[in-house]
Amino acid sequence: MPVFTRLSHHQDTSPEVEPEAGAEASAPEPKKGLRARLATLRDRHPTAMHTIRWTITILCAALVLGALMLPNRMNALQPDRFTRIPVEAILGAAVALALPRRPRLIVAAVSGVALGAMTIVNLLDMGFLEYLGRGFNLILDWELLPDAQAYIQDSMGKAVAVGASVGAVVLVVVLLTVMALAMVRLSNLLSRNKQVATRATLIATVAWVLCSALSLQISGVPIAADRTAAALSVQVRRVQDTLRDEAEFQKVAKVDAFGNTPPSQLVPDLRGKDMVFTFIESYGRSAIEDPIMAPGVDKTLDVSTKALAKAGFHAKSGWLTSATYGGSSWLGHSTTMSGLWIDNQQRYRTVMASDHLSLTKAFQKTGDWDTVGIMPGVQKAWPEQQYYGLESVRNAFQLGYKGPKFSWSTMPDQYALEAYQKLEHSKKRDKPLMSEIILTSSHQPWAPIPKMVDWDKLGDGSVFNAIQKAGKKASDVITNPTKSREEYGKSVQYSVTALTQWMERYGDENTVLVFLGDHQPIARVSGDHASRDVPISIVAKDPKVLDKIADWNWSDGLRPAHNAPVWKMSAFRDKFLTAYGSTPHPKKS
After folding, report:
1. Which of 222, 241, 260 is the last residue of a domain?
2. Which of 160, 213, 438, 473 is the most exposed place for a label (fewest CB within 10 A)?
3. What is the pLDDT of residues 194-223, one digit of tens each?
4. Per-residue pLDDT tens for 430-445?
C-alpha cells in the first residue's frame, strides 16, 4: 500500500498516484445511525448544536413545569399561575438524583406519561367547566365525547368534526410521548450534573417551605404550588364519590311517594284535559335577567302574555333549579319528570332502568290519556320512551320535515309544533292527549336562527331554505361571547313565540300547557357565576287549573318575578301531582 505524505504546496512535485484496488475497504467504515450523525454534527457545528441542545432542554423544562401548574379553568389561564414553585418538580428531582440509571429512566418515562394524562384531564376539565359547569368525571363522562363530536359536526360541518377528532387523538398521543421524553431528558440532565442539581433542589425545597409557611403570594396566587397533587386528589375523590353515589342512588330511586298510588287517584283534577309538557332548550334565568338578552326576551314574554290573555289564556310562572348546566339536557328532563335529582349519567341510567314513576307515565298509568312524544332532536333509537310512558314517539325523521337543518337543530320549533298539531293533537280521540315535546331551536351555537313564518305556509318546511341561507354562520357566533349572548336571546324569543302562538292558535278550554327550560346556557353566555335556575310556566284557559296552584305564589304571566319562589327541579313532580289531587301511596325500598 503506498504511503501518502502531506507536503506544502511548493514541495508537491510528485505525480498523482491512484489508490490500489481494495484501498477503500481498508479505510475506516463511515459512522452510521442517528447517534453517529449527531456526533458528526457536533464536531462540525459545535456552537449551533450546543444552542439546539439547550433550547430543547429549556423547552422540556417549560413543558413539564407548565403541565405541573396548568389550571383546569379557562379564566385561570393567567401568567401568574405559571410563576410558582411546584412541589412536584422538587420531589421529582430528588427521586431522579437518588435512583440508579435504569430505574431512573423507567420512573421518568412513567411519570411523564402520567403527567401527560393529568394534563389531558385538566384540558377536559376546562371544556366541561366551560360548557357544562362541572369538571370531567373519569368514570361517567367518556360516553359524552361522541355526543360532543356529533355536536361539532352538526354545528360546524363534517370536515371540522373529523379534523377535530383526528386532532384530539394526535394531541393525546403527542402529549403523552413528548412528556415522557421530556422527563427522561431532564432526569438525564440532573444525573450528569448531580452536584449542582442537588444544591439547586435543596435551595428550591427551602424556598418552597418558606413560601408555604409564610403564605407568600403573587397577585393573590400562592408561590408555593401543589397544583398537580391537588388536581389528582380531586379526581380520586370524584371517582370515590361516584362509586359511592351509584350504590346510594339505587336505594333512593326505589323510594317513591306515589309509587303505589292507584291509577284512579293520580291527577284526578286534570281528567279531560289535553296536557302538553314542553321543554325549551337552554331557556335559563339569564335570558330574563341578563342586561344583553333580557330586554328582547322580557318584551317577548310580556307580548306573549297579553296575546294569550286576549285569547282567553292565563299563566303563572316560577323558577326551578336545574340539575344540569350548559348541556346534557336529558338530565334536566329526567329530573323534572322523575322527582329525583339526576345530575350525572350513572343516575340517569339507573332511573331509566327503574320503575320509579315519571310524571308523564302517571298520565299513562291512569288509562285515561293517550300519550305521545314529539322529539325533533332524537335521531336514533330512544329506549327512554318506556320510562316516560309514551305510547308513541315521533323523532326527527317522523315529522315530515324536508327543509334545512339549523345547525344542531333538525328543524324549526314552529314546524315541529305544526307537525305535532297535524299528526297528533288534531286527531279525534276517545281520550284526551298527554304530550311531551322537546323544542330545539334555542340549542347552541344559536346560528342560524329560524324566523316565524305564516302558519298556513309551513308546508314540508322548504319555506325555511332562504331563512337558513340568510342566517348567521355558526363559526361566526360560537367563538364570540357577545354575539353568542345576543343570538341566544333571539333564539329564546323565537322558541317562546312559536310555542305561545301555537297555544293561541290551537289551544282550547281543555288545553293545559306546562313549559320550562331544561338548563342555563353555557358560561360564555350566562356568565361564570350564573345560577342554575330556569323559568317554568303553566298556561290554561280553565281558571280552575291555575287556582289549584294559587298557594305556590308564582308570578302572574309568563315572566317570573325576580323574587318568585325557587324550587329544586326534582321537587316539581310531587308538587304537581299533589296540587292536582293525587294521593300519595309510598313505595319503599
Report:
1. 241
2. 213
3. 889 899 999 989 998 998 888 888 877 888
4. 999 999 999 999 998 8
On whether both 162 and 302 belong to a single domain, the answer is no
CATH of the domain at 408: 3.40.720.10
- 422-431: long-range contacts at Cβ-Cβ below 8 A with a sequence spacing of 24 or more? 423/394, 423/399, 424/372, 424/374, 424/394, 425/274, 425/506, 426/506, 429/370, 431/368, 431/369, 431/370
- Residue 14 within a domain: no
What are the grid coordinates assigned to 99, written together? 435512583
> Between the CA atoms of 411, 416, 417 and 419, what dihedral angle is there, to the nearest 10 degrees?
140
The C-alpha cell at 276 is 302538553
Claim to verify: residue 336 and residue 452 sit in the same structural domain: yes
13: in domain: no
Q: What is the pLDDT of residue 12?
A: 43
Quick count: other Cβ atoms within 10 Å of Cβ 28?
Answer: 5
Same domain, 367 and 482: yes
Prediction pTM value: 0.79
Q: Are residues 161 and 202 in the same domain?
A: yes
Q: Residue 359 burial (CB < 10 Å; 0-12/13-18/19+)?
A: buried
How far is Cα 374 from Cα 417, in angstroms, rounded to an integer?
Answer: 9
At 566, is the secondary structure helix, strand, or coil? strand
Percentage of the chain exceeding pLDDT 90: 56
For residue 454, what is the enclosing H or E element? none
φ and ψ of 31, to 5 deg: -70, 140
End-to-end CA distance of the chain: 100
Per-residue pLDDT reduced to its tens digit, 171-185 = 899 999 999 999 999
> Among residues of the chain, what percentage have pLDDT more than 70?
92
> CA-to-CA distance for 60 and 485, rounded, in angstroms?
40
Same domain, 301 and 174: no
Q: Tell me which of 119-133, 357-371, 381-395 is least confident.
A: 119-133
Same domain, 347 and 203: no
- In whole angstroms, give the CA distance from residue 130 to residue 237: 21
Cell digits for 449? 336562527
Q: What angle do CA 394, 400, 401 make, to 5 degrees?
A: 110
Domain count of the fold of the chain: 2
Closest CA relative to residue 536, chosen from 284, 358, 294? 284
CA distance 574 to 589: 18
138 and 75, same domain (yes or no): yes
Q: Are residues 481 and 342 in the same domain?
A: yes
Q: Which amino acid is at 31?
A: K
Which amino acid is residue 423, in one-letter code? L
Do residues 341 and 570 make contact, with C-beta atoms less than 8 angstroms apart?
A: yes
Q: What average pLDDT does range 405-425 have in this prediction? A: 94
Q: Which of 220, 241, 262 is the last residue of a domain?
A: 241
- Note the pLDDT of residue 417: 97
**Cell numbers linked to 170:** 394526535
Residue 72 belongs to what domain range?
A: 34-241
